[in-house]
What does this fold into?
Amino acid sequence: MAREYVCPGKIDTFGQIGIDLVIGKRQGPYIFDTDGKRLIDLHINGGVFNLGHRHPELIEILIAALGKTDIGNHHFASEARALLAHKLAEKTPGDLRYTVFASSGSEAVDIAIKTARWATKRRQIVSLNKGYHGSTGISGNVGDPQNMDYFLSRGSKEEYEHVPFNDLPAMENILARKEAAAVIMETIPATYGFPLPADGYLNHVRELCHKYGSLYIADEVQTGLGRTGQLWGVTTFGVIPDILVTGKGLSGGLYPISATVISEKWGGWLTENGFGHVSTFGGAEPGCHVASRVLDICSDPALLASVRKHATILGEGFADLKSRYSFLKEVRQCGLVIGLKYDDPLGAVSMCKALYENGIWAMIAGFDYSVMQCKPWLFLDRPLIDDILTRFNKALNICTHNPPFK
It folds into this structure.
């Protein structure tokens, strides 16, 4: 039925690599197909399930909220929305203060870019080749243009410029024209396969933005909320943005919500024109109750210390596998943001199938099929690490000797 009424192309694509997954039960770090086969979820929808599937406490909070509230009215003040916005102001870096809520990361990125354009009175946005920030109108254009070309929706070069990751001269060449409203980057680009920023790169970009009058927008949708061992990925690299975007995991995997957090200096439109951007479902009250607790959990020093500890153990395990299998070419890691690059242009496709057959679901990097995204839940422990590495060992053995795809 899904093939007939939802998205035939997506189902057919996974079918071609032997994956016909229909998710049934799900709990913690695991998903189960409708026949009961258990899979360790290392995709977690890009970070939606940072805290696992069906987190018991978050379910209780959502049920309690539904017992006394509903979506609410976005035009009026809301206690739940105000408390969450205050908490975001306290827990984000620098002087970020105002929050505009939305339902998805794409919408939150759109809000960030509209804010930068209003604040600087410039239109151009600079982003990265092979970047991804969503699929709506503005957010789609700041990502890699291939999908916008497909839908005849690509913006002009005067509005959107793309530069290579880690290329500071290319970045300065664009910013020096003083036409760019903002630079937007994922702290570690996910769909590109999690290449790590070179030493000092993000800080240098931030300095260039300041030098040439552009804003720095940190897209923390995938790298935020504890995944790097700090609450925010940019904090790991010592960067203070003008605007920060978060989403996915903010939902607790239960109620869609995203947020654009803006410094007081650049958020003047919220005072000048409170109706400049409206979102019917942005900051829905049940979602705010869940997200508030998500922030508490993800900023817990004990959890962040555990993430750092177990990320080190998992990284050592992958390094050992790399030493034994030439098929595993590179391990890219910052906390529990992990990209595994294989020695074959379709290496991640082969590993995706081999891992699926061995009880793991992990996703291919959308713009580089030689790289696999590996994102365990944040409550990682030693037994689960050992289980993951054992299953990777089996999959690597298969792909080394008889890769399913070439």
Notes: The chain has a mean pLDDT of 96.
